[in-house]
């Protein structure tokens, strides 16, 4: 049902061939920011009340750190793999549907009609106790919750880059806003030899978002 609703929403604003040919401004997809935030707050509240270990991740975590955002997709929570059953039970007891997708690195939930990803691995890197301990408790649309630390958040974004996914434009605002809070030297070392992350770091240098490697050495 959710996929059909998304398809219908897209078709309602998708440009026609005539609109594409006219050169006129194209319609924007529906803004689901507040709906996604409400779902985020409800799930975070349940996890907090149940004493579960977690941290907000992804674009909503960036929003928690002050990065402007307009959400169109889902909310990501980082949780420990060993907490899967307890978290599933907590959400299901609150009437939130939880399911296991074919991927073995997350479980998915649906809250207020929005998708929630509860992730055990961030771009193939396991979520650890240490990572969750580094999370910062921040207000997200007035509700306080653990949010991935800036360096961990950026590390997860860099690790997700590949030949098939290299949307630098979506990560650039995060780097700009959080640049003084991120350990760039650590990220350079962790991503040495990885083409896409290195390309993004080089772009940040050329845009004067971060110091060039030679200057920071």
UniProtKB/TrEMBL annotation:
Matches recorded under Pfam families: NTP_transf_5
InterPro entries: NT_sf (IPR043519), NTP_transf_5 (IPR039498)
Name of the protein: Nucleotidyltransferase
């Amino acid at each position: 049902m959710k996929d059909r609703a998304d398809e219908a929403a897209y078709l309602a604003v998708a440009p026609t061939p005539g609109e594409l040919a006219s050169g006129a401004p194209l319609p924007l997809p529906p803004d689901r920011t507040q709906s996604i935030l409400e779902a985020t707050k409800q799930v975070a509240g349940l996890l907090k009340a149940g004493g579960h270990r977690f941290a907000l991740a992804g674009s909503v975590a960036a929003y928690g750190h002050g990065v402007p955002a307009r959400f169109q997709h889902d909310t990501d929570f980082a949780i420990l793999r060993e907490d899967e059953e307890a978290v599933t039970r907590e959400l299901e007891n609150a009437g939130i549907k939880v399911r296991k997708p074919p991927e073995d690195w997350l479980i998915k939930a649906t809250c207020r009609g929005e998708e929630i990803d509860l992730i055990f691995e961030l771009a193939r890197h396991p979520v650890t106790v240490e990572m969750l301990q580094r999370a910062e408790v921040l207000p997200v649309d007035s509700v306080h919750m653990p949010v991935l630390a800036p360096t961990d958040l950026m590390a997860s974004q860099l690790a997700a880059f590949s030949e098939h996914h290299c949307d630098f434009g979506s990560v650039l605002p995060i780097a700009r806003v959080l640049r003084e809070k991120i350990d760039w030297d650590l990220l350079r070392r962790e991503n040495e030899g990885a083409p896409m992350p290195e390309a993004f770091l080089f772009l940040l240098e050329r845009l004067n978002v971060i110091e060039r490697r030679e200057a920071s050495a």
